[in-house]
Amino acid sequence: MSSEAAFISSLRALATHPAARNFEDDCAVLELGGETLVLTHDMMVEGTHYPPGADMADVAWKLVAVNLSDLAAKGAEPIGVLLGHMLGNGDDAFAKGLAEVLGHYNVPLLGGDTVSGKGPKSHGLTAIGRATHVPVPSRTGAQVGDALWVTGELGGAMMGLEALQRGESGHTAYSHPVPLLTEGQALAPHVTAMMDVSDGLLLDSFRMAEASRVSIAIDSKSAPIAAPEERRMEALTWGDDYQLLFTLPAGEEPPVPATNIGQVEPRGFAPLFLDGEPLLNSEGLGYSHN
Amino acid sequence: MSSEAAFISSLRALATHPAARNFEDDCAVLELGGETLVLTHDMMVEGTHYPPGADMADVAWKLVAVNLSDLAAKGAEPIGVLLGHMLGNGDDAFAKGLAEVLGHYNVPLLGGDTVSGKGPKSHGLTAIGRATHVPVPSRTGAQVGDALWVTGELGGAMMGLEALQRGESGHTAYSHPVPLLTEGQALAPHVTAMMDVSDGLLLDSFRMAEASRVSIAIDSKSAPIAAPEERRMEALTWGDDYQLLFTLPAGEEPPVPATNIGQVEPRGFAPLFLDGEPLLNSEGLGYSHN
User: Fold this and answer.
1) Using alpha carbons only, how large is chain B's radius of gyration in Å?
2) Which residues of B touch A63 (CB under 8 A)?
3) Is B118 in a helix, a strand, or coil?
4) Per UniProt, where does ATP bind (chains A, B) (predicted)?
């Protein structure tokens, strides 16, 4: 086990409170005074999650959007966010982007911290939401016989990044992901399992299968992609799309537009079967968590 | 106004929700389901908040302790924390220190994120607490005629850092600050204003006076210090002590050990009077916020 994997394991060993579902992979879900709080924290680091010189307004949008997407996958309604921000070049743009995304989703900034530092900038966001349906959906609930569904198209962020790299301007699915809050709330009462596709459809499906102790079979051709057909596999392994991946009992139609891309089977030889081929480990199915 | 000050102002302009008391300077206080939540987020950056090569177990302790201290100043009981952590050298020690401090204060790790990055490491922590008394104390409530009190001694962190710099080992007030959770909860029903002394007694008193729109008069000789007498002024302007600074109506005795170091006066010529001398601006009274 790498030292990073060992470290994350040690954090998971610490995170044993019932509210701590699965450190890093899942939101915390906390019962409090008759409400159910959903809490998530994601960081973005210059050079890792965005290139040096990126438009900091886009970084602010994405920082908020990816955290709200975690709430969306829980069917939660955002209450507010706390920001941790390293000061630096582009702060004016960052403030503008932050105001834009918080205004767009009507989410208040509740507090936070600004710090000075040398070297690459880092930014953290804690999003706090209120569950609109209990039990709160998780990635662990997929049942044998369920159908696997995904909202929207995969690969949009990949195409968006390439457009940015070609020097095209404007908002793309890469720079301006859209957290599916309304869809998540509509789905929450119906799904047996749900998560957002942050690291690639195949990797996230693999994780859902592992968490639910089932196998998931995906028909790659059925997945809608926002990329040329010859890049289908890339689209299914690229991350950052923030679509919702969920399971429903067979025969049930989702209350929001989505595509049936596979089904849940008894745990077999591998967690994931792609067009009938077993995928035994998650290597190469998406991009690394950090 | 510097670009950093402008940025922080723009965040404050965004943080207008009633729960967002004063961005960065104060915890968020959120009514939810009959409970009152207190939320805070502080970051620590290598090279800014701790020297490269520091014992990462100490960094983990301090990261948690300074956030719990924010909860202490609200009389809040911790519910849990979310961690944002940049992976790197010393992660084993960090995990050990984190387990130690969370175990010591019986606070669960609820979730978070780990990230890779090049350059100085940064770490963020969000602490979530439940108010034990409402209204939740704030720095804005000091009333003319109140007495000003502080728990413990000032300057301990300064002496602790110097001990570390001399190569002495072991826990110091600098490396292992103690959040005064029990004291904060005992004080909350009695105080008119309360905050923790994170950036220096004089600077934080100045801020309390500004927030409460009063003047505060401090008798420097009356403040207990954990340093040689000739370093009294340094002890009163050094940060990181995490004592509780609070005001009580005149004649009232605090329920925990503390020292009366001054009083609250009508807003006069300056926010702060030190031994009768007006201190008009906060320059030099403590250390900078970031």
Assistant:
1) 19
2) none
3) coil
4) 112-113, 139, 198
Look at residues A155, A138, A128 and name the one whose alpha carbon lies nearest to residue A64: A128
Nearest-Cα residue of chain B relative to residue A17: B108
Chain A residue with Cα closest to B118: A120
What class, spelled out in words, does domain A147-279 have in CATH?
A: alpha beta
Check: CB of residue B190 under 8 Å from CB of residue B248.
yes
Interface test with B, best of A110, A121, A130, A136 (most B CBs within 10 A): A110
The two tokens of residue A89 are 């070049």
pLDDT on residue B137: 96
In tens, the pLDDT along A100-140 reads 999 999 999 999 999 998 889 999 999 999 999 999 999 99
For A289, which residue in chain B has the nearest alpha carbon? B115
- pLDDT of res. B48: 92
Q: Kindly state the average pLDDT of the residues A14-27.
A: 81
Q: A249 with A240: CB under 8 angstroms?
A: no
Query: What angle, 0 to 180 degrees and rounded to 10, lies between the N-to-C axes of helices A91-104 and A56-72?
Result: 30
How many beta-carbon pairs under 8 angstroms link A with B? 261
* Domain locations in chain B as residue ranges: 3-131, 147-279
Give the percent of chain A with pLDDT over 70: 99
How confident is the model over A200-220, as pLDDT tens digits?
999 999 999 999 999 999 999
Q: Are B185 and B113 in contact (CB under 8 A)?
A: no
Residues in chain B, pLDDT under 50: 289-290
* Structure token pair of residue A69: 């997407």
Q: Is B49 a known ligand-binding residue?
A: yes
What the block records as the tokens of B43 is 């970051």
Residue appearing with tokens 């710090």: A115
| Domain A3-131 superfamily per CATH | PurM-like, N-terminal domain (3.30.1330.10)
- Of B46, B28, B50, the C-alpha closest to B87 is B46
Dihedral, A223, A154, A188, B83 alpha carbons, nearest 10: 140
**A290 band by pLDDT with thresholds 50, 70 and 90:** very low
Residues of B in contact with A20 (CB under 8 A): 80, 108-111
pLDDT tens-digit series, residues A230-274: 999 999 999 899 999 999 999 999 999 999 999 999 999 999 999
CA distance B28 to B37: 8
Q: What whole-number distance in Å separates Cα of residue A28 and Cα of residue A129?
A: 10
User: Which are the contacts of A155, defined by CB distance < 8 A and separation ≥ 6?
Assistant: A225, A226, A227, A231, A234, A235, A236, A238, A241
